[in-house]
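Researcher: We're teaching a course module on how sequence relates to structure. For the next exercise, students receive a sequence and then see the predicted structure as tokens, so they can try to spot secondary structure elements on their own. Here is the exercise chain.
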Amino acid sequence: MRAGALDMVELLLGRGLEPLRASHNGRSPLHVAALHGRAACAAALLRAAAARGAALTLLLHGDCGGALALHEARAPPLPPPPRARTAPAPRARTGRRGQRITRRVEV
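Model: And here is the predicted structure for the students to work with:
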């Protein structure tokens, strides 16, 4: 949906577009409007469904995967999770002359 999408939705609704009509994959026009972040188009579709007494049916209509139009709505991205702090790597022990000290474990 590009600029003027609301005008097109209102034109189609005026010509008898059925807001509950689903595509081959079960998506209603409300699913598509929500997927593309078109809140004004979604509101127009809900008003048209409410005029027919079917707003709740439209809201609860799932696509073939069971996703509701609300699932399709774009939300602002979440901030990245904070980085986990890791313990610093253990430093090798060295003697007075800078030689590495190793422990012997007898078995």
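Model: If you want an answer key for the exercise: The chain has a mean pLDDT of 76. The helical segments are 5-14, 29-35, 39-51, 55-59, 69-72.
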